[in-house]
């Protein structure tokens, strides 16, 4: 009987606690303060928006992405891809439609969590940096400056890139392999397991250092330029581009395009070095890397990769694949930013990039 009283009392306490919690949530909502449950849901929605934005933007430019990597890593003794148009035609002729999208599944599997973490990390880093800035200056109305946005973007890029780097490493190898490659990775998980088994755990992070260095100007400038340009347009409203304190989708696409062009141009040489370092140690490398029996260059680190690339191929080699990358990065970055904000609007997320 006593146990039944305890159980009844426990259930009663649970019911009371539930009612109290619901009442508190309702009270907070009426006062304009969101409860912890709402905050978690908002974070999940923000992550979904970032993932969708990354997946759609990468799929839209997948053929140019693959061609860029092929141009970056192809052996200089055996040139198969001489430019954007010729390269795309060659892929179509030799591998068909599937060849244009080879590696896109792995790329999307990587970019969805990467973009989700990146956008979410940027918002959290922005809030944290803004809070510290207001605490130091004593100005509660202070806003993020371009330099502070650069720092928040760099933090977000490093966190997201480090979390998903092994997937990016194997994606590069899957992208460059063809049907004539001596060994075929059957997919992302097979590639991850093979690299780990044959080359060790460190191989999964080969090229990580130039990636981290490159993330600072690339992602940092992307966010800083995009947000600063958007704020400037909202404040000055040239040609009446803003309506009801909102920019048209086309205008936001333009902001994203400018941000992407500046960021990728500054960081591109580091991207070339990263890709080349990812190919080191590949015992069954694709012919595009080995050069049909030619000896592929081996690199002992980032500095050695820079030195050998410039010595044997010239400074221009640091910008191989820049043209298709420029063509694809403008719509890719623009679509990512706009899709992110549109999806957040659809999901009803109050947190915005510019908060």
Automatic annotation (TrEMBL):
Cellular-component GO terms for this entry: mitochondrial inner membrane
InterPro entries: MCP_transmembrane
Localization, UniProt: Mitochondrion inner membrane
Similarity remark: Belongs to the mitochondrial carrier (TC 2.A.29) family.
Keywords in alphabetical order: Membrane, Mitochondrion, Mitochondrion inner membrane, Repeat, Transmembrane, Transmembrane helix, Transport
Natural source organism: Zizania palustris (Northern wild rice)
Predominant subcellular localization, coarse grouping: mitochondrion
Residues that span the membrane, as ranges: none
Topology versus the membrane: Multi-pass membrane protein
Single biological process term from Gene Ontology: organophosphate ester transport
Chain positions of Solcar repeats: 41-128, 144-232, 247-346
Protein name, entry field: Mitochondrial carrier protein
């Amino acid at each position: 009987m006593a146990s039944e009283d305890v159980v009844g009392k426990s259930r009663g306490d649970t019911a009371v606690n539930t009612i109290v919690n619901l009442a508190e949530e309702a009270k907070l909502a009426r006062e304009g303060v969101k409860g912890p449950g709402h905050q978690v849901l908002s974070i999940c929605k923000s992550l979904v928006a970032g993932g969708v934005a990354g997946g759609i933007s990468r799929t839209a430019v997948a053929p140019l992405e693959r061609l860029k990597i092929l141009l970056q890593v192809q052996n200089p003794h055996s040139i198969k891809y001489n430019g954007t148009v010729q390269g795309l035609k060659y892929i179509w002729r030799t591998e068909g439609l599937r060849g244009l999208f080879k590696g896109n599944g792995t790329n999307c599997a990587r970019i969805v969590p990467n973009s989700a973490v990146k956008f979410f990390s940027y918002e959290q880093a922005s809030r944290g940096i803004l809070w510290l800035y207001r605490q130091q200056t004593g100005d509660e109305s202070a806003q993020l400056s371009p330099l502070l946005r650069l720092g928040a973007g760099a933090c977000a890029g490093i966190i997201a890139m480090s979390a998903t780097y092994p997937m990016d490493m194997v994606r590069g190898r899957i992208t460059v392999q063809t049907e004539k490659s001596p060994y075929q990775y059957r997919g992302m998980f097979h590639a991850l397991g093979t690299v780990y088994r044959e080359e060790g755990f460190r191989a999964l992070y080969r090229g990580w250092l130039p990636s981290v260095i490159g993330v600072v100007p690339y992602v940092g400038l992307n966010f800083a330029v995009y947000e600063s340009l958007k704020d400037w347009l909202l404040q000055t409203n040239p040609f009446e581009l803003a309506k009801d304190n909102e920019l048209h989708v086309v205008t936001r696409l333009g902001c994203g395009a400018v941000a992407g062009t500046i960021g990728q141009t500054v960081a591109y040489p580091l991207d070339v070095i990263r890709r080349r370092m990812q190919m080191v140690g590949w015992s069954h490398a694709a012919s595009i890397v080995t050069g049909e029996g030619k000896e592929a260059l081996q690199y002992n680190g980032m500095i050695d990769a820079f030195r050998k690339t410039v010595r044997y191929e010239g400074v221009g080699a640091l910008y191989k694949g820049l043209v298709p990358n420029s063509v694809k990065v403008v719509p890719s970055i623009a679509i990512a930013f706009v899709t992110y904000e549109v999806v957040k609007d659809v999901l009803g997320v109050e947190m915005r990039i510019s908060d």
